[in-house]
Structures are given as C-alpha cells and as structure tokens.
Design brief:
By secondary structure, this protein is mainly α. Helices cover 44% and strands 5% of the residues. It has one domain (6-315). The protein has twelve helices and four strands; from the N terminus they run H-H-H-H-H-E-E-E-H-H-H-H-H-H-H-E. A four-stranded mixed β-sheet has the order 1-3-2-4, covered by helices on one side. Strand 2 (162-165) and strand 3 (173-177) form a beta hairpin. Helix 3 (86-100) crosses helix 5 and helix 6 crosses helix 8. It is globular and about 55 Å long. Mean pLDDT is 87; it is low at 306-311.
Length: 316
Amino acid sequence: MPPDTTDEFLEMITELEGRRKSQRLAEKKNQPACTHCFGEVIAAEGIPGQPGYRKRAPLRREGHHALQLADEIESRISLGKCGLSSQQNVAYNTWKTWRKDNSADSLLQKLDRDDGRDVTEPEMRKLINVLSTLLFPTSSEDDKMKVDFGWQDWSETPQRIATYYHADKGGPLISMCCFNQVGDEGYDNLGIVASGRIATILNGLVHAYLDCYACRCKGVLGSFEEDVEQLAGHGRAWQRIAGSIERWSPRILGYPLDIHRFESIVMNWYDWKHWPSRREVESWQLDYYATTEFDESDSDDEKDGEGEGGGESEEM
C-alpha cells in the first residue's frame, strides 16, 4: 500500500534497503554506466578569463544523462538572481511586472479565476516561456526546448488536472483543465488557484526538460527507465529537478510553490520498478514545502530591488 506521509515512505525505503542491500550491490556491479556519464559535465568550470576555464557545455537533444541535467539545474538555479543571464533578466523583469500588477485584468489575477480560459492560450505560452527561461536556462548554442499549451474541459473528470504529452506523442505539450485546479495557499497577489496552475506548469516543464535533453540509455546503471520513466515520468531526475525548483522559487519567483512531489509518488505507487536508496530519498526533501515557512524578505526581488537587463502522456 502507498504510504500516507513522507516519514512513512522513508521508513519503508529504509526497511527495503536493508533487505535488498546485497542483491542491489550485485546488480550494480554487473551493470555498465551510461556513456554520457563519462562525458564532460554540463556546468561551466573555473573563472572566465582565467587559465583552465571551460564554458558550459551546449545542451543537445537526448544528449545528456538525466542526473547530469538535474545537477545542471541545481547549479544554475542556486545562483539566484545574481546568476541570471541577460536573456533571463528580460524574463525576470517581465515576471516582476506581472507580480506587481494588481489590476483585475492582470495575468496573475485572471489566472486565479475559476475558468482558466480567461487567460488566452497565447498568454499561457508567454507565461510558460518566461518560467522556462528563468528556471530552465539555455544559451544560444543549445538545442531549444519549446513547449506548447492547450486548455481542456475535463470538468466531468475532476481528478484530472493536467497532462504532459511527449515530443513523439504530439508534444511537447502541456494540456491543463480550465476548471479542475486547486492550490494550497496564496501569497501577496498570487491567489490559491493561480498558485496551483503555475505549480502545474512547472511540473510539466520538468517533464519537458528531461524529454528534450535526457539520453534514452538502456541496460545501464541509472537508465532512462530508472531515472526518468518510472512513476509515470516522476523518477529520480524529475524529483531532483522539481525539488530544486521548490527550494529556489521563493527567491527567484517571489512565491513558494508546491509541485506535489510526494503526491506524484503516491499516485503512481504501483509503477515502481527501481527503488531509490534512503540517501536518495532524503536528498529529495519531500516535506520541504510543508515544513518551510516562507518570508517575503527571502525573495531576491526584495533583497536586490529592480532587475537588471543584462512519448507517452503523463498525468501531472
């Protein structure tokens, strides 16, 4: 049976790890590593202009191990606003304009209405592009990730909120129900429903990022199936990236956002094929949103003032 709490889940993993330790070690010993693990890391190394400096490796479609991509997101997003590129600063200033607009017809106010279609699909695509630019940064040398969007009327199936469609299944596309959205808590001018919709978009963007750039390695240690596909796409790499976004969204976006990482595990519980270690699960910090008190002064917007220019479908 699925666990009811994150603590119960960790206890289950600890017990399972003790019973399967010798078996797991034997399995790992006989598995080769993904060839992409031996390639250069994605992140830049050293100081620009200094000896030994290497700039960030370009992102290639299906060209990187999933966990390397998770490391890249964490390394970039943890820099906060001071690490934004000129392109990201443009997106940041657009986002901040939306945040400060309290008029009834502002994007965030319309996003909080019962019928999401008050925000047009082109407006939603612009929102997705801004969030993608801020939290999933790319450079001019990278293959581009472009995600489409569509509203759906799934009011007769209230449990269905959104679906991500893979590139080989008509995507990359985030389809979201215009009615069945719930949030956890609103902050400032971001209402509960709007908060839930933005968190749902970020959930889908993690799928899209891995769909675009993760290699499809098979029969290796840390395969695509293990790190990405299992749990309906909410495997190890997804958990790591979504966790990074949850931890850093208060500083970059100015709001805490719950991407429902533990819920994604429970909903897809019977899809487990490769169980994570206790250490891995602890690193996910699945209770981060529920146990962390948000202070608006944590936002980089509050600290720094104005920004500077400078395959298959998955239920989300």
